[in-house]
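Worked example

This section walks through a single chain of length 87. The input is the sequence exactly as stored; nothing has been trimmed or padded.
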Amino acid sequence: MTRSDPALLDACRQFEAVLLRPLFDSLAVGRLAPADTADAGDGETFGGSGAGSIMQSYFSEMLALALARSGGIGIATMLASRLGERP
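Given that input, the structure is written out below as tokens.
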């Protein structure tokens, strides 16, 4: 990969984030538990309005993107390197 192509690296990082997001969703990373119960299994943590599910989804998306942009698990770097070799 050439260092002069930040657009390619950014696109690869976004792709890595797309791959990481389902992992965070399945692990329920960052799930907020209601104060009166021990289990927040349904994601309905903000008055039963469904906002908990929306916030969980947004949190997973932002966490995946932040991880990918900070080096991630190496998928973006490897992919950008391979794509940068092509004529």
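What to look for: The helical segments are 6-27, 51-69, 75-84.
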